[in-house]
Amino acid sequence: MKKEIKIIKKAKTLFDKYQHLITNEFLLAIVFFILIVFLIVPKSKLGISSLKIGDVAPKTIRSNVSMLVEDPYATHAKIKQAEEAVPNVFYYNPELYDNLYNKIYTAFNDIANIKDKTLALKKFNQDLDINLDLDTFNKILKNKSIILRFTNTILKDINRYYVLSGPSDYQYVKNQILIYNTELRTSRLETNTEKFIDLNTAKALSYDKLHWSVPNSDLRKLIIDFVFSLVKPNAFYNSEKTQELKKQAREKIAPVYLKLSKGEVVVREGDIIDKNAYVKLKALNSLFEVKNRFLDLIGIILILAVFL
């Protein structure tokens, strides 16, 4: 600062000596030039503003202050770890297949007294929201008792699983899963990922299990096709709820700070700059930039005081 004051006083002396040669326009140009120089010429002596991670330190750099510096890399890693610890959320309806069986049973009862097969088929399709043809419908009516029995067996069996629509949901089955029971409105952690299957797998498992119970392959296929024309997933991945939990986990993470001590060697000449050193160097450079801006302001005030 003393050096800058001396420069300004010297400029004042020169100005007084050659005042008769200087026009107002010339003076204005000089003032603007000096202002620009003060604003754009960096005064930091550290020479670290352009250094990056992986660069070789051109000289040994020490800290001239003591402070805490937020480490964005460590903070980000901590946040990522917290997010990864959040289980994916699946909504699960444990009563879906029990309700489906009751719906099927009721549909059969509702057409019991309808003599016209066409009307009975129309009613049956409407009640179950399916589209059976008359030939398939007649086969189902002919085997009504066995179809109802094995429909109940199949639905109870697959209800032991979390049945998903397909790969779009199955990709989120990882490690721990948070199961939200939509009927009880409760949640619990599920660690057994083998309990998650998709509809195609559920259909294949059911077909294999009927192999000995229903030796007739045509009847077995009729039962399976009928049941799985009605079966819907009883669980699904809830992205919105999962992201909400991840957000809550992020908000609980406190920033990670590095301690920077006065006189500490941040990096030695020839060392490779790592993340920790880079964070500290960046903090030091920011302090010097603030100092430089302050000097700019003082310089402008002094110029105005001298020439006005």
How would you write the strand order of the largest sheet? 6-5-3-8
Overall tally of domains: 2
Identify the overall geometry.
Answer: rod-shaped
Beta-strand segment tally: 10
Structural class: alpha/beta
Order of helices and strands: HHEEHEHHHHEHEEEHHEHEEH
Mean pLDDT over all positions: 84
Oligomer state equals: single chain
Q: Proportion of β residues? A: 5-15%
Considering the chains and any ligands shown, give keywords for the structure.
308 residues; 10 strands; alpha/beta; rod-shaped; two-stranded antiparallel ribbon
Structure description:
The protein is α/β, with parallel strands linked by helices. It has two domains: 122 residues, no CATH class; 168 residues, no CATH class.
Task: Provide a short characterization of the protein structure.
The protein is of the alpha/beta class and 308 residues long. The protein is 56% helix and 12% strand.
Helices and strands in order, then pairings?
Layout: H1 2-17, H2 24-40, E1 61-62, E2 67-70, H3 72-85, E3 88-92, H4 96-110, H5 117-128, H6 134-142, H7 144-158, E4 162-164, H8 167-170, E5 177-181, E6 186-190, E7 196-198, H9 199-209, H10 217-228, E8 235-237, H11 239-251, E9 257-260, E10 265-267, H12 275-307
Parallel strand pairs: 3-5, 4-7
Antiparallel strand pairs: 1-10, 2-9, 3-8, 5-6
